[in-house]
Structures are given as C-alpha cells and as structure tokens.
Amino acid sequence: MAKLEKEILKKISQKVYQRFPDFQGKKPKVKRRPKAENAKEFPPGHLLIYRKEVAGPDGQTITRLVRVVINEEGKIKKISTSK
Q: Alpha helices of 1-83 — where are they, by DSSP H?
C-alpha cells in the first residue's frame, strides 16, 4: 500500500473517536514508516498522530496526542496517548 487509502483512514479514525471521544473530528497527520533493515525494530506501515490542544488546571495550554501505528495492510498494531 503505497499511499494510505481514505477508507482505511476513515475506519481507523472511527476507532480512535470511539476510544477517545474528545478527539472527534480531529484529522491525523500521517507519516510513512519505511521498511527498515531490522523489521522487528521498525516494521513498515504508517504512523497516525492525532493532536489536540486543551487547557490545563492552571489555564496553561497542554498538547494531547494519540499515536496509532498501523501495518501495511491497514491493521492497528498499537495505540498510545499522552496524558
């Protein structure tokens, strides 16, 4: 899959929105993960980064991120978030 297809991106975004409803409507930044020499360390696929600015308890702006790693077939391999 040379380019991330729109329907795969939509399907993954729906899963992110279900798990993190406050990210509803946020579009991810998509980064291609090229095939590395050691595939166990860095498997090929895509990294999707959802970003949102929120106000902290003292009124300071905090950036929240949801990172989604998908393989070349469009299957989610890992989801992580900042607090």
A: 6-19
| Domain region containing 66 | 6-81
Strands 29-33 and 76-81: unpaired
Task: Give the total number of structural domains in the chain.
Answer: 1
pLDDT tens for the 83 residues of the chain, in order: 445 688 999 999 999 999 999 999 999 999 987 766 665 556 678 999 999 999 988 889 999 999 999 988 889 999 999 97
38 lies in some domain: yes
On the 0-12 / 13-18 / 19+ scale of CB atoms within 10 A, 68 is buried
1 belongs to a structural domain: no
The pTM (predicted TM-score) of the whole model is 0.81
Instruction: Look at residue 50 and tell me if it is in a domain.
Output: yes
